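Practice problem 4.
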């Protein structure tokens, strides 16, 4: 009986824990402005949450210190009453970040200088580079790497495969069978964003379905055999043909509408004129210093002492006290999740800076090939946590403002045996074409030879594919008479 009771208690705790884990993951991957809105909404919805009101400038520093100490005491006073919640938080941290991290006090959140943001271009990453970065982390047979890269080069801006598998497999420097090409395509189609590498709309939508979903089979049937009717909203006809009831058909079609028919559309090369970097890198005393700056806009929140007093008093309405306990539990999870987000983002940013020092020193041609797994291993967290931590976040560096995922691009070994990033190679190719004699522009083979002189040993076909992804015309079209 004791074992059964223990198991029951554990299951009960896990059921309570799961929604909080989901909330924590969501908070981690939210961009800063979305997080600000989320916290402001929580301040409205949760009565036990209060915002720290910054004192006026003419108030003495001692008053500020007293206010800070008071806020700390208010949170500390809950320790005994919510010891169980603290234990649950420990379980969550282990699940979420695979390491026992503490709230980071190492970050001095100084005021952010926004002077040059409008004049600094943000470097966007292409869909191809994003896929190549994932390929560099994939554990696949070496025999599939070349065909996987070729498939990625042939994916258009909408995320679809532009050429047939048969053509791609035959035009490789080392041609492969169609069966091998199909295996490689499955590898690419398993990457993010979901639906990438599809050959048509139907396949694109099917790739986005999750087999664990309760309506998976229904959605698959409607997409596979009734897509035209779905587009025309012929609900009754679909129900009659498929045998599903009308309510189910409508429900599943509403879900299908949420799928992305152009998964590559989230990637573009347009500059974003107004962004809010969450991380700043400064060169101070001959070393790079990392600071979290996005949190300057984030409301500082704490749990109101008033509600502790309500709980501590004897008697009172039990339903009201239960309600307050639930709200305080929710508030503590929110505060902890925000602190966890700060700690994780800071640690990941520090490791990125350490691994990309040559880029920070010398510029884009010295961008290093770094895998998310490399950073995950150094920080001691799961690779998926790294992916979520950098999602939709920007970093301000001496070289400009960049999407943090920019620093995770794939690469290849150069003539010296060192790894060369695809982005660095692309910049070298762009420079070669920019400096060419416009009356006698270089062919792709000649451009490959020029890259070879720079230590980049790649094939002509690779140059051709990269030139196309960079939207650079052929030598014939570049010729100026």
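Answer key:
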């Amino acid at each position: 009986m004791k074992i059964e009771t223990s198991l029951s208690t554990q299951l009960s705790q896990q059921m309570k824990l799961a929604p909080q884990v989901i909330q924590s993951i969501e908070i981690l991957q939210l961009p800063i402005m979305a997080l600000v809105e989320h916290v402001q909404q929580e301040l409205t919805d949760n009565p036990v949450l209060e915002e720290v009101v910054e004192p006026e400038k003419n108030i003495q520093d001692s008053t500020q210190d007293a206010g800070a100490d008071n806020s700390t005491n208010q949170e500390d006073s809950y320790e005994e009453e919510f010891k169980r919640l603290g234990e649950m938080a420990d379980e969550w941290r282990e699940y979420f970040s695979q390491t026992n991290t503490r709230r980071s006090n190492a970050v001095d959140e100084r005021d952010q200088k926004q002077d040059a943001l409008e004049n600094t271009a943000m470097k966007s990453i292409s869909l191809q580079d994003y896929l190549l970065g994932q390929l560099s982390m994939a554990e696949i047979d070496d025999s599939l790497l070349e065909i996987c890269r070729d498939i990625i080069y042939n994916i258009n801006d909408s995320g679809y495969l532009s050429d047939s598998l048969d053509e791609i497999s035959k035009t490789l420097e080392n041609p492969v069978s169609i069966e091998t090409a199909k295996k490689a395509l499955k590898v690419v189609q398993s990457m993010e964003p979901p639906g990438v590498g599809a050959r048509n709309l139907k396949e694109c939508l099917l790739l986005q379905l999750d087999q664990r979903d309760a309506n998976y089979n229904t959605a698959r049937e409607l997409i596979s055999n009734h897509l035209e009717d779905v587009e025309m909203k012929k609900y009754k006809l679909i129900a009659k043909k498929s045998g599903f009831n009308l309510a189910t058909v409508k429900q599943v079609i509403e879900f299908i509408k949420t799928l992305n028919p152009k998964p590559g559309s989230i990637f573009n090369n347009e500059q974003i004129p107004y962004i809010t970097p969450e991380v700043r890198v400064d060169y101070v005393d001959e070393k790079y210093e990392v600071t979290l700056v996005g949190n300057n806009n984030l409301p500082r929140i704490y749990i109101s002492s008033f509600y502790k007093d309500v709980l501590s008093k004897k008697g009172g309405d039990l339903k009201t006290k239960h309600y307050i306990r639930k709200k305080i539990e929710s508030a503590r999870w929110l505060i902890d999740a925000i602190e966890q987000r700060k700690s994780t983002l800071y640690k990941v940013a520090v490791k990125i800076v350490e691994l990309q020092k040559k880029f920070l020193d010398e510029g884009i041609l010295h961008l290093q090939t770094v895998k998310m797994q490399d950073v995950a291993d150094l920080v001691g967290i799961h690779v998926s946590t790294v992916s979520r931590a950098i999602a939709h976040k920007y970093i301000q560096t001496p070289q400009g403002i960049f999407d943090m995922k920019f620093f995770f691009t794939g690469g290849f070994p150069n003539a010296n045996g060192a790894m060369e990033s695809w982005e660095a190679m692309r910049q070298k190719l762009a420079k070669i074409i920019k400096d060419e004699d416009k009356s006698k522009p270089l062919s792709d083979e000649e451009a490959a030879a020029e890259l070879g002189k720079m230590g980049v040993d790649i094939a002509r076909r690779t140059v051709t594919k990269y030139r196309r992804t960079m939207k650079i015309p052929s030598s014939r079209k570049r010729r100026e008479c």
